[in-house]
């Protein structure tokens, strides 16, 4: 066993400051920051324009021949789904169906210019639609007079509801725009994955209950407020014997067929060029059958009815409605942004580009403000519709723009074809698309085994949202989540440190709770800025380079010589841009079928360019980490694998024993991430690195000196306390 001995003076803070002169750093004053913020030059103006209008950035690199056809196919497919979902989600908002077409058009056009995500499909989102519907039915109930609001005089019930929906959407847009301008996009971090999962599961239950009246063909007034779901179920079961058999059979048939085909789409998505648009197909069939057999007259089926041609005149919001709906508008603004940002972040990581949370708030705020002026209701993104846009090959928001054109064609020309469509079909489509949100309940057993406070947050948020309503339920969920943080911070598991005889090592006699907020250590976070490179991007570049090398070897344009790989052709070589399977680019580099192992820091053949990685070792100091939740475990493991796969040795020091135990219980370690990377102190890790990479080895450079050892290495030591809250 190797040993070391350290001899140094005993320092107090003053004594250390006397011996070691401290470097004086000039800190910028508030005045300097303000002056710099308001200073304008050509470069800042250009950056501001690119930031405010992100489409300029990707339009400049748009690959017309490679991307246009994919965007057209994606736009048409997404547009057809957007038409159907717009009609269906209007029922959730307690509005006439055609107003959903407005929501699938105006916000999409605005987001094209202002949004930073290239893949999400903007439009109606079922949870937001339901929240709008709760406000609408509260101010304009199905039974009884509406609330006394100036501006309702002389309007029909539907017109009053449209005014309420448009006004609350306008107010929601103002809130989102204000948050974006104030640069408070970080607020989404306070909505954890657990809280959002519980909230959306509860919303799915509300949506399911709200659609039962259409599936059963019953007349049930819309209710809102605490226990509204209980009262709605009571009204449904009281008149269950009045169920319209035609509506019920049609709905069951639609749900069974759509569910089966969606499962086929999911199972064979790798083999299908585009997903089968089963909702659209069944809607067309239902329209034809309803028209042929005159369901409305012969079977008393409630149908969509007249769809006006064209768009309505814009209108301003009602200020009195603002005062009545401000409490509901704020959670709508938060939920709409949180869901859209989460989906956008998934696709941005998959396709390797950056999104801006503050700009997304501005984009959705402007989309909802302009959309509300033209009588659309709250817009965000629907997970299923975004999945269609991305899976059918959409590369940019050109696909979104084309989907809006499809919606416009329906609105201006062929909307009358949808008039015989039974509302029970729309209800069935809404219900079958709830599968993903309802199946989130499977997370409860996992959370209970791995992180019980997170499980409590999930359960309380879900139950409160079901019983009290979505707005109050979200507030309760946020309160419980904050209480769990306070509880962990205020009541830690205290420890008594005991010295190991003859060493400078101290171990806790008892464990205590710890946490790290990994949302600050993601692919676009601050952690990788300390390292100086993005390991995932480097890994993808390396795997693309290997694809190119294999391709050249197969063609005979690259040959193995005594000096290594030699290019035999003189023509230009293009880097492989095959994005058919992006997941393969995230896997470890594989040299098994190559005649030589590539040295990534040397000059590569065929002028292949791969970013250099000059760091061979990374130390993470976990001494200030308080605890790790499930989301943090996943994020940490992904970050470690990215670094390991680009041949950077990672070491974690001063990690609490409780966290190590949790890592083992959660099966954190595997063939890549091993428990051997954990060291007691930073000094131990440094000595280990020094032993593996002697000072006189290649590529040495001064990085950090520990104690009085002459450690001159390409190594980085990060104190994770800078990454915690």
Short description:
By secondary structure, the protein is mainly α. It contains 29 helices and 10 strands.
Helix/strand layout:
Layout: H1 13-19, H2 30-38, H3 42-52, H4 55-60, H5 64-92, H6 99-103, H7 106-114, E1 122-123, H8 126-139, H9 157-181, H10 193-216, H11 228-238, H12 245-267, H13 278-293, H14 295-298, H15 319-351, H16 357-373, E2 380-381, H17 383-391, H18 398-414, H19 423-432, H20 435-438, H21 443-450, H22 452-468, H23 470-490, E3 497-499, E4 506-508, H24 527-531, H25 535-555, E5 558-561, E6 564-567, H26 582-585, E7 617-621, H27 630-644, E8 649-653, H28 657-665, E9 678-679, H29 682-692, E10 715-719
Parallel strand pairs: 7-8, 7-10, 8-9
Antiparallel strand pairs: 1-2, 3-4, 5-6
Helix pairs in contact: 5-8, 5-17, 5-18, 5-19, 7-16, 7-18, 8-9, 8-15, 9-15, 9-16, 10-11, 10-19, 10-22, 10-23, 12-13, 12-19, 21-22, 22-23
Overview of the structural elements:
Helix 10 runs parallel beside helix 11. Strand 3 and strand 4 form a beta hairpin. The strands form four sheets. Strands 9-8-7-10 form a four-stranded parallel β-sheet. It is mainly α. It contains 29 helices and ten strands.
Q: Give the percentage of residues in beta strands.
A: under 5%
- Total number of beta strands: 10
In order across it, which strands form the biggest sheet?
9-8-7-10
Distance between the termini: 39 Å
Classify the helix fraction into a percent range.
40-55%
